[in-house]
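Journal club prep, notes for RB
We'll compare a predicted complex against what the paper describes. Inputs for the zinc ion case:
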Amino acid sequence: MAVHKIVLFYAFTPVPDPLAVKLWQTALAQQWDLTGRVIVSEHGINATLGGTVENLKRYVRTTRQYPGFADMDVKWSQGTGVDFPRLSVKVRPELVSFGAPDELTVDSTGVVGGGVHLSPQEVDDLVAARGEEVVFFDGRNAFEAEIGRFKGAIVPDVSTTHDFVAELDSGKYDDLKGRPVVTYCTGGVRCEVLSSLMASRGFGEVYQLDGGIVRYGETFGSQGLWEGSLYVFDQRMHVEFDDQTRSLGRCVLCQATTANYENCAAPSCKTLRVVCAGCVPGAAVQVCASCEPVSV
Ligand SMILES: [Zn+2]
Ligand SMILES: [Zn+2]
């Protein structure tokens, strides 16, 4: 039986002709029956794809032939074969939608002016050396952090990545500008941009977790500074790094511990809420706070 996997990778490198790369990537993914999402921009490539392990290996090997993609860090995880409903390959102004494409400078070494990359071990070493001074800064949407985050992390009030620029410009986090700040996200791609936006706004000592939470969890499981479950953007919805993981998620209806997300009952609303298995029937007919009619 075929073994299914998911690959996650990105590369920040100048891509002079994103449309040509899109067509090439579409042909490769179709040829090898891959599904998932690929975004190409003038700044590089960002992809999450599922398929059989043989086909994914062929695809990754071929993708590495593009000069700027040769050294990409590719993360592998277990797949089911039905992790993504379809294939989507798109050209976008940004690899991740911060709404600030003109703020980002990319050269053959990657993002210019981004945070210093730290391996999971180096993050732990930094915290061991500097203690409470170190701040973890969550680079994801706030809902993702509800089921897991780094110990003591600051979780910005963002519902999409687009909200980060306003959030940083609000002055809310200016007291962190003199402290070591470690940004982290799922696989590292959002921190490449976020850490550069922070550095250019005067955050003086910015680090980014290399390989993201995925790599940290693979390294330390639940024995390190990471607590709880990891939200993922495929049909698994969340992953736990070992069987001792205690999710930080609390059901919005009954406060029970859970890592389960359910959609808001309003058909047009994409809000995900943490809801335990027992409350799923009730949640299915209930809308989220922002869809509730305002009472006067
Ligand atoms: Zn519940
Ligand atoms: Zn809603």
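Talking point for the session: The two ends are 60 Å apart (CA to CA).
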